[in-house]
Amino acid sequence: MTSFRLTAGGAVDRDHALNFTFDGKAYKGFAGDTLASALLANDQMLMARSFKYHRPRGVVTAGSAEPNALMTLGIGGRTEPNARATVTELYDGLTAKSQNRWPSLKHDFGAFNSALSPFLGAGFYYKTFMWPGLFWEKLYEPLIRRAAGLGKAVMQADPDRYEKSWAHCDLLVIGAGPTGLMAALAAGRAGARVILADEGFRFGGSLLSEGASIDGRPAAEFAASIVGELSALPNVTLMPRTTVFGWYDDMVFGAVERVQKHVAAPSPDLPMERMWRIIAKQAILATGAEERPLVFGGNDRPGVMTAGAVRTYLNRFGVAAGKRVAIFTNGGSGYRTAADLLAQGIEVAAIVDARAQSNDAAPQDVRVMRGGSVIATKGRLRIDGLIAERSGLDEVIACDALAMSGGWSPIVHLMCQRGAKPVWSEDKQAFMAPDVGGTFAAAGSAAGFDTISVCLRDGAAKARAALKALGRLVGPLDIPDVEGEYDPSFAPLWYVPGAKGKAFVDFQNDVHVGDLGLAQREGFRHIEHTKRYTTAGMATDQGKLGNVNTVGIVAGMRGVSPAEIGTTTFRPFYTPVSFGAMAGTARAEHAAPFRTSPLHGWARKNGAVFVESGLWHRSAWFPQEGEKTWRESVDREVLNVRANAGLCDVSTLGKIEVLGRGAAEFLDRIYSNGVLKLPVSRARYGLMLREDGIVFDDGTVSRLAENRYVITTTTGSASEVLSHMEFAAQTFWPELDVRCVSVTDQWAQMSLAGPKARIIMGRVVQDDISDTSFPFMSAKEVTLRGGLKGRLFRISFSGELAYELAVPAGYGEAVADAIMEAGREEGICAYGVEALNVLRIEKGHVTHSELEGRTTADDVGLGRMMAMQKPDFIGKRLSTRFGLTAADRLQLVGLKPIEADKEIKAGAHLLKDQAKPSLANDQGFVSSACFSPVLGHFIALALLKSGRERYGEKIVVWDGLRGTEVAAEVCSAVFVDPENLKLHL
Amino acid sequence: MSFHDLYRHVLEDLVTGFSTDRNANHLAVARRPAILSVLAAAGQETSVAEALHAVENAAPRFCGPSEWLLVSRTLSAEHLADALFDIRGALVVDQSEGKVLLSISGPAVRTVLAKCVAVDLHPEAFAMGQSANALICHLPGNIARTGDDEFEIVTPRSFAVSVFEELLEMGREHGLTRNFTE
Amino acid sequence: MASLITCPHCGTRPKEEFSIRGAAGPERPSPTARDEDWHRYVYVRDNPKGRYQEHWHHVAGCRRWLVVDRDNLSHEVFGVTDAAEFERARVAK
Fold first, then answer.
1. In A, which residues are within 8 Å of B118 by CB distance?
2. Which of A511, A555, A978, C24 could covalently link to A974 via disulfide, CB atoms 3.0 to 4.6 Å apart?
3. B153 to chain C, closest Cα gap in Å
4. What is the pLDDT of residues A6-24, one digit of tens each?
5. In C, which residues are within 8 Å of B134 by CB distance?
6. Of A782, A811, A839, the domain-final residue
7. Are residues A756 and A625 in the same domain?
8. Per-residue confidence (pLDDT) for residue A112, from 0 to 100
9. How far off is chain A from C66, nearest CA to CA, in Å?
10. How far does C41 lie from chain B, in Å, by closest CA?
11. CATH number of the domain where residue C53 is located
12. Do B118 and C9 touch (CB under 8 A)?
């Protein structure tokens, strides 16, 4: 193995060696290396196999646009596929594996695709795997899936933490090259709040890669001194390893920070990655420019890379791309590369310059072939020579690396993510940043590739303009002198005619010039169609390197300007972002916040099984020893409530206080029934409608004082009801002096129900709660033993003598314990929402199973709740529409099975006796069903056509889903105590 | 037996029993603060606002137009409500049990809170004494600046465990500690 | 990622703090208005492309209903008003 590492130079620490493996083989690199630079230093040019043809591929770039050097990093749950070796910071113990090859990178059976490549052109899959249709799902798709794809995700859970954060600034500078550093410095010195973000792990951008000197120092040293000053400014936040991937509405930028991707032993106290949402008043795009590859035959052979990449590996990492490097260029970048290589003692085979003439001067003794072109490359796993052509004469030139430069494209993706299209410049022969208004400006090379000194000046100037827009003055900034910079201008060369072998445009998706021609011939001429037909630009690199060449080549084929072809659409994310970063902390049990009742501890103590109900965790039932099924527990709880007493947590019901002089009038308009005359200390059942006349929610209204009410809502609709009331108060009747305040969380509320409820409650509450002093539907403040104040309501959902007691939340558990203790002799039990459900079905009380968004008050037997004499209430006007008063509407009824041991389940549909199941024969459906332990058989509530006229009718309960049919009798929805005698005990 | 001795804070299990060491970055839970919703009746907005700012040993937190949370660490809810009794047009609802009062402080406090709140808490944007309703750890709450490096958070009781756990998690890299303050 | 709405009471906030109800244009008819008016109010909505007034509720902030005047294509926001103010202004017209 040859070492390509230079003995000196670059920003790597040769005293700090790092061990890593690639495909199981051990290597050494240095601190400051990327995975790609360390592999190159170790003569590992072959890094990947291409997607379609499995061609051997080496690294092409030294940055985030890399299409080829994708690898799988890490092991187990930390496995990360498709990582770009060019931006992977090396750390000790890093394990990397190549992808898309079998059995090994050197010997890949998939490479036979390359031999078949004449048949695998663009659209191959569309054309081939069409027929017969059935084959698609069973055969073609699995086949393609197995062959396609690059790295593979693993099934293990990711062990790392991720988080999200907001950031705010006056000026966001994206990119910390010469432009970004000067912009941040100008704004930072002026005292503005600046964020400087760069995707790399070291600030400096091209200053780290170029051989120029600034103020008499190497460019990298100059960069370090600016970074030093910036890091001392308290108003400047430096964000290395942070990719700004998206620009969103209202100057919100998305960014992802790789907090410890580069750390050998990650700290459990730090996230692996952090997602940022940056709200910036102004932003500067200082992302620089991307060097274009040249499109010539065999341009994908390992060892062919951009000239800028060759310089980066050389100057920044101290790694030579080869021992004898050839250069193919159409501009100054190639000449600069030759000079840099020579300065490090590396042989330059030749400069092949596509231009017949240029002002660029080659270093002494370097052969220049002006007006020449490279038409083919040789070698298998690494280039060993090229064929250059000039004036019809071919010549073989030996080399072990080829630096190519096809000119530059400003990196303008972020600015185009909100719909603006990049603008073609004939002058620059590149797509330039569009004008997107006064808050986001491109600067330096991102605004038009240029020399370092122009970038330094432009960065400072754009920062000054941005701060001026914010009303801040920025003093002048001295722009240092730059020596040894080069002119990056070039003459366009979209592709080299006469290519031998494939000339690739999109390396990652294996799209070559021939594919683009095929797409034009077959009618996929719009650039968006060409893209999708050929898949150019659709790989994980999104065509960062190849898209501009695609446009240029298609323009050439069509004989028009690239301006006419335009670009495809730019969307976030600029580079791939992990799902972990997007999920942040929202995973596993933290996927959603959870909500606990103040009686949660009491329920847990009593052995509750909890059920998720929205965000709440509610007690569902309380199994006792020996009970094997939930039904056993529920049946016992129901019977005990009906015979003795039970205590249930109803804290989750929505509770809203309604206050103000207009409260009574307001509630009268909100509820369909009359509320205006409700006396103080009394409660009433209340029904709310939607404006279309359909029932919205139900609950109770209690008048605590002249201008103070507390209302309850169902658990699930609490927030919706509050929003609805606020909407009505603020937009329908802003003249009413009324305010609504949620007090759901303030009170622990418990329902004590059963014939012995009064005896038990009397032991906890000091007030007189006899039937005469505290009759049914009373509501008032009470004093508990020891002076604690609570609110007592005599309301019932179970149909039993019942009280709801509300106490301040922190006392809930103690009071519930006291009630259980007080009721021990009376045989009190804890009961959960399942028993509550059975109790209310036995009484025919409706919930959202019946109030399901289609039913009117009359449908569910609450027609008496429609106070039509009121001048107005929400839903009144449309409640009388023909459709809502039709005779054949579904109405609430009860059902009992004719054979007592048969089970009825909710969701089943109803058919007339003997009728066949069909939509036309549908008579309604079962909304709620349960086993009634009181009656000893199943019962159900149902919505049945003209149901109230059909008591006594035999009907079929057809459950197509579960495949059952049960004969049932239609009856009243009230199964237990129809005269409500127990309520008034 | 009096219920007053059996009072239980919703965060009891998450605070009691953990280390009592206090780091520079710290999250304190007020054990029994008084927190009242105060709303001004129509036409009384200004006079109620002025009166609230004059209440001793309590701080009004802005919630929205003519709506505040009046917070006191020393007065009981009853005493605080009494103090408001004479303010014309003030509608008062006790929320002392429905809300949890947290105080987070330390040199990293803004870094931690940036993970929890979208509001810009830089002193230029959110000055001493300023308060606002906002999403805090994904849930509606109120945040107030009570010092250079100190903020107070009011969060709904039923979600307090979720919010508290998220705050601790976001403060983990800065060694955030916790305790009750009486 | 986020869009920002500047609440007249709370300042600039991400859209997650709000819930959107829909067009603010339709006005609740009087209880005695014609069937046709009620039908239009409850069921008929324009679906414009461009500038549009919508009811947004600042649920996680001041809990006020707001009228957001914005372009639903570009998300340019022209103004945000308290809905009660908006109604009073409408009545005054």
1. 166, 277, 279
2. A978
3. 14
4. 999 999 999 999 999 999 9
5. 10, 13, 17, 60-61
6. A839
7. yes
8. 66
9. 9
10. 29
11. 3.30.2270.10
12. no
**A750 and A801 fall within a common domain:** yes
Q: B10-26 burial, b for 16+ CB within 10 Å, e for fewer?
A: bbeebbeeeeeeeeebb
Per-residue pLDDT at A708 exceeds 80: yes
**Cα(A219)–Cα(A228) distance, integer angstroms:** 14
- Could you tell me if residue A559 is inside a domain? no
Query: Of A480, A500, A522, which residue constitutes the final position of a domain?
Result: A480
Query: Does the beta carbon of B148 lie under 8 angstroms from any beta carbon of chain A?
Result: no
Q: Taking the mean position of all CA atoms in its chain, how far away is CA A715?
A: 29
Answer whether A786 sits within 8 Å of B170, measured CB to CB.
Answer: no
- Is B127 touching A (CB cutoff 8 A)? no
Q: Do A648 and A787 share a domain, yes or no?
A: yes
> Chain-centre distance of CA A525, in angstroms?
34
Domains by residue range for chain B, with CATH: 3-31+97-181 (3.30.1360.120), 34-94 (3.30.70)
A872 near C CB under 8 A: yes
B152 in Cβ contact with B103 (< 8 Å): yes
CA dihedral A142, A144, A149, A153 (to 10 degrees): 0
Reference C60, options A655, B146, B132; nearest CA is: B132
Nearest to A811 among B6, B67, B166 (CB): B6
Is A310 within the bounds of a domain?
no
C64 touches chain A (CB under 8 A): yes
Cis peptide, bond prior to residue A573, ω within 30 of zero: yes
pLDDT on residue A450: 87
Q: How far is the alpha carbon of B66 from chain C, nearest alpha carbon, in Å?
A: 10
Residue A663 domain-assigned?
yes
pLDDT, position A149: 62
What's residue A497's pLDDT?
A: 86
- pLDDT for A152: 86
Per-chain mean pLDDT for chain A: 94
pLDDT at A474: 85
Assess if residue C33 is contained within a domain: no
A665: confidence class by pLDDT, cuts 50, 70, 90: very high
In terms of CA atoms, which chain C residue is nearest residue B67?
C62
End-to-end CA distance of chain A: 97
Q: What is the pLDDT of residues C27-63, one digit of tens each?
A: 999 999 999 999 999 999 999 999 999 999 999 999 9
Give yes or no for A262 touching B (CB within 8 A): no
Mutate to test the interface with C, among A243, A250, A723 (most CBs of C within 10 A): A250
User: What's the rounded mean pLDDT across residues A170-182?
Assistant: 98
Q: Which chains touch C (3 or more CB pairs under 8 A)?
A: A, B
What's the rounded mean pLDDT across residues A283-299?
97
- The pLDDT score that the predictor gives to residue A131 is 61
Number of domains in chain C: 1
- Predicted pLDDT of residue A449: 81
**pTM assigned to the model:** 0.94
Q: Kindly report the nearest CA distance between residue B37 and chain C, in angstroms.
A: 13
Q: How far does the CA of residue A837 sit from the closest CA of chain B (Å)?
A: 23
| Structure token pair of residue A681 | 């200390």
In the predicted structure, residue A807 carries a pLDDT above the cut 90: yes
Measured from the Cβ of residue A118, the count of other Cβ atoms closer than 10 Å reads 7
Average pLDDT over residues B49-57: 95
ipTM confidence score = 0.98
Assign 3-class secondary structure to A622-682.
CCCCCCCCHHHHHHHHHHHHHHCCEEEECCCCEEEEEECCCHHHHHHHHECCCCCCCCCCE
pLDDT for A651 equals 97
Band the pLDDT of C68: cuts 50, 70, 90.
Answer: very high
Asked if residues A673 and A659 have their Cβ atoms less than 8 Å apart, the reply is no
Considering the domain boundaries, does residue C73 fall inside one? yes
Chain A contact set for C19 (CB, 8 A): 723
Closest CA to A891 of A940, A842, A856, A920: A856
Query: Which B residues 2-61 touch A at CB under 8 Å?
Result: 2-4, 6-10, 37, 39, 41-42
Please check whether residues A81 and A102 belong to one and the same domain.
yes
Interface mutation target, options C62, C65, C80, C86, chain B, most CBs of B under 10 Å: C62
